[in-house]
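Continuing the batch. This is chain 6 of the set; chains 1 through 5 are on the previous pages. Same settings as before, nothing changed between runs. Recording input and output for traceability.
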Amino acid sequence: MNIRVVAANLNLARFYDIARVTDALRKVSELEDPSARLHDRDLKSDRPGIVYARAPAAGKRRGGVLHSGTGGERHPRQHAAVVFASRIAAELERAYQMQQFSRLVLVAGPSFLGRLRAALSPALKETVVAEVRKDLLKDSDTAVREHLPAEIFWS
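Output for chain 6:
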């Protein structure tokens, strides 16, 4: 029984393996997304388009015409986070197909954890035995290990 632990945030994912409750984490691989450090303006080509309101009716006052942007709520950084979560899920899927692990633990901040969970296939979702809702990548591997619940080894 091998447990794969993935600790991730918007720009980095570390994959660890652990087999027994007494073991330390063994780092397997790492994925990085350099675009996560860029600003929104660097991730897209130009400003959102503009929509103009209708011109005033005949005989009415002429003057400025109302306009508004069409950018909506689509932010390039959010899209980059979804794409990175998909890359992480693809890496996990590949490892799962090669039978490198049978259980999965997700460690990420709450917002990225949701994106990561959504990117997992149904088969991978069944292997998830625990989730830690903290961004622990700034901490040491030992700190990540300390946040793992002991129940993952017996479930």
